[in-house]
Amino acid sequence: MGSNCLNIGVIMLLLLLPSTVNAQYSVIDVTKYGAKSNGDLTQPLTNAWKDACAAGKPTRVFVPKTTYYLGAVTLKGPCKGPVELQVQGTIKAPADPMKLKDAWVVIQSVDRFILSGSGTFDGQGQTAWGLNNCLKTSACGPFATNLRFNYVTNSQIRDIKSLNSKFFHMLVFGCKNLKIQQVTISAPGNSFNTDGIHIGRSSGINIAGANIGTGDDCVSIGDGSQDITITKVNCGPGHGISIGSLGKYTNEQPVNGIKVISCTFNNAMNGVRIKTFPASPSSGTANQLYFEDIVMNNVGNPIIIDQEYCPYRNCKAQTPSKVKISNVSFKNIRGSSATADAVKLTCSKSIPCQNVQLQNINLSYKGSGQAKSTCKNVKPSFSGTQNPPPCKA
Ligand SMILES: *[C@@H]1O[C@H](CO)[C@@H](O)[C@H](O)[C@H]1NC(C)=O
Ligand SMILES: *[C@@H]1O[C@H](CO)[C@@H](O)[C@H](O)[C@H]1NC(C)=O
């Protein structure tokens, strides 16, 4: 009797285990909410999300493989249980940039969210880029970011593609513990401000295995970013993987603990970069920044710290940056530089960079002359191979 009870208890536990350990998702298909091939997905997706979010058990919103049009949507939490959005189709944004504000698809205040599937978010940004050249015109963007994640926690984004965004492809803001895996991001090399993934005020963000080619930074890391790891990312075309720009605004929060490991850059304008504006309105810090095991193929400035970053006219370039950069390591970085400036470290005159290390650097320059290393307001420490030869500080 007693042992029977125990057996039944064990059997019940075994039956329960699969559903608790490997949560089974109920599926909500957007076609049941009126989604049609070449139709408007806005209302079906919004309604399917609302039901999934209220379900109180793991629920997947499924977008089958075909083409849809979608206006601006905000898919909001908090939700009563985990929600997955699985996109197998191609979803197109309005081509007219004026039909969207600063974001196209927003996921907001959701815990345990998954965005998955082999589908594509097509921002149709071609018109916006022509209007968004801030270097030449004062009436410029910002236009809509394709995918914006606000205050999303303990979540995953995997496999999906982001194409031709009007502005940033993905913006991660106020997020904690987010894994971004195997995503593909693509826009032409001359499309303005189409950063691949921009991270701000977030912690525990892990980007792995992405293919990113855009007209701006492949990944950019803004103020308040902590504990960010970027591995196995292919970048190019694009402006590289950047920490910054920092020092443009007041009340910027510290950047701390950034690792860029096992990444490859192909024909990018920069490789690994730290950039801060001169004449920062307030002080800031960027600390514990590691770049390791990186291959550069024909990259403009493979290793660069630029504290005199001034992409627009009218920077007060003579007033030094107040952002303090410290504990930086560049290790095992090899390949080819497209310019002679293979290593260029320009730090702030008022707050020189502290503890910058270069170890096993092997960057050749294929043009005429020698690859060179230049240093301003920094005394790096060198170890292992150094090609170009160490700068004379
Ligand atoms: C730099 O790193 C050292 C050792 O890891 C640490 O003691 C120091 O506090 C760091 N510097 C800053 C500004 O955090
Ligand atoms: C540096 O790279 C070149 C090829 O670009 C290679 O031939 C050479 O052996 C490398 N040097 C070291 C010390 O690794």
UniProtKB/TrEMBL annotation:
The active site is at H239. Its main location: secreted. GO terms for biological process: carbohydrate metabolic process; cell wall organization. It is found in: Secreted, Cell wall. Pfam families: Glyco_hydro_28. Gene3D superfamilies: Single-stranded right-handed beta-helix, Pectin lyase-like. Belongs to the glycosyl hydrolase 28 family. PANTHER family: PTHR31375. This is Exopolygalacturonase-like. It comes from Juglans regia (English walnut). The lineage of its organism: Eukaryota, Viridiplantae, Streptophyta, Embryophyta, Tracheophyta.
